[in-house]
Amino acid sequence: MGKNQIYLIDVTNRDGVQTSRLGLAKLEKALVNMYLNDMGIYQSELGFPATRHETNYINGNLELAEMGVLKPIILSGWARATRGDVEAALRLTKIKHLNISISTSDQMIKSKFRGKKTRKDIMDMMVEALAFAKKKGVKTVGVNAEDASRTSDKYLTEFSLAAKEGGADRIRYCDTLGCDDPQTIYTRIRRLAERVKIGIELHCHNDLGLAVACSVMGAKGAVDGGVDAYINVSVNGMGERAGNADLVSTILALKKANGFRGKYHLDRHVDLSKAWEISKYASYAFKVPIPINQPGVGGNIFSHSSGIHADGVLKDRRNYELYDFGELGRKQYEIVETGSEIVVGEYSGIKGFSNVYSKLKLKFESDEEAAKILELVRYANVHTQKPLTDSELFFIAKYPEIARKIMTVTP
User: Fold this and answer.
1) In 83-228, beta strands by DSSP E
2) What gap in Å lies between CA 138 and CA 392, rounded to an integer?
3) Cβ pair 129, 167 in contact under 8 A
4) Is 99 within 8 Å of 48 (Cβ atoms)?
5) Strands, E, within 65-176: which ranges?
6) What SS3 state is found at 8?
7) Cα torsion for 178, 86, 99, 105, to the nearest 10°?
8) Which DSSP state fits 317?
9) Residue from 92, 79, 102 nearest 53 by CA
10) Strand partners, 203
11) Alpha-carbon distances, residue 43 vs 12, 137, 233, 342, 402 (angstroms)
12) What is the pTM of this model?
């Protein structure tokens, strides 16, 4: 179906952390970026660079990118489409990739701006913020049409053309209320792609349970319309209200669904074998169990009780399993350690700390270095309010100064 590609932009650290009553500590957000990078995800929208409490976390992650640790993943920030927000983002951080967002539907223009803004005003604000970002050297700028699914085709086209003429790299079509359906979004996105000829992002919410379906069909419309597609996903579908398009489910749909497999080209860097690891970590960090029927990573996905199904699977797993558990990095059996266990926390001593790190096959050059890392580990436990995972402990030991920066929030 042509040469255009489908890329994934993960928004766990921007939209996922806006899940009501939940959230991630800055260290946990950094670990999500590490997992996404290992998984070959094209871009992570890592947070809000115009927000002061994100400053150290964002700059710390950008330092990891400069060091080649977070590479090749692109780290981008989200800001409102105002010159003030862009100016603050560039003053507080070293961010080089931005998505700027503004409402485009009549419903939101009238209600959010209290009748003080017109469609033209909205377009002018976007163009001004975009021009300022480009002038200040931002490498890529995506322009978000919030509530695009309730925006007229005519105005959405005019808005997108103005963004393209202003130097935007992509348009983000936001199904903010999750009210689109797969056929409608395919038709609208294909029409927009053919008219505007610019890469299109799909940002779909799951209020009707259609986020993944709308995302992949929107991507299909973009590719059929002759442009690259970028699907916004989040780990385990975390996000506001009913959440966003689930990362693993979206990959599976693009790789395994009859209408996509071998016909549409997902970014070749995506490594599905990292799915189990990242989903488990996000579940732990958010304190939200993975649903038992979650595609790919749920507890029942490779379980069979029906007599007919069990018989068929014993003969050949392909009778009743669309994909193999090994493809997602899952093992046939999960090994659970028993016996005494030592964990590290805010009150840990050097002996227990050393025991835990020895299991990670990490050694310290001196007692002074060990004491320094232990102090950071204690702070990290206070920071996350949970026992630290092996990946978090490893990160702190390997990048102590970055970890210190990420965990530092100054009111």
Assistant:
1) 97-103, 140-146, 170-175, 199-204
2) 31
3) no
4) no
5) 74-80, 97-103, 140-146, 170-175
6) strand
7) 40
8) G
9) 92
10) 174
11) 11, 19, 10, 36, 20
12) 0.93
| Residues 204, 213: Cα–Cα separation, whole Å | 9
Number of other residues whose CB lies within 10 A of the CB of residue 370 = 17
> Would you say 163 and 188 are in contact if contact means Cβ atoms under 8 Å apart?
no
For the chain, the residue count is: 411
Cα separation, 408 vs 398, in Å, equals 18
Contact 218, 202 (CB under 8 A): yes
Task: Spell out the per-residue pLDDT of the chain, length 411, in tens.
Answer: 458 999 999 999 999 999 988 999 999 999 999 999 999 999 999 999 999 999 999 999 999 999 999 999 999 999 999 999 999 999 999 999 999 999 999 999 999 988 889 999 999 999 999 999 999 999 999 999 999 999 999 999 999 999 999 999 999 999 999 999 999 999 999 999 999 999 999 999 999 999 999 999 999 999 999 999 999 999 999 999 999 999 999 999 999 999 998 899 999 999 999 999 999 999 999 999 999 999 999 988 877 666 666 666 667 777 767 789 999 998 865 655 554 444 565 555 666 677 677 778 787 888 888 888 988 998 999 999 998 999 999 999 999 999 999 999 888
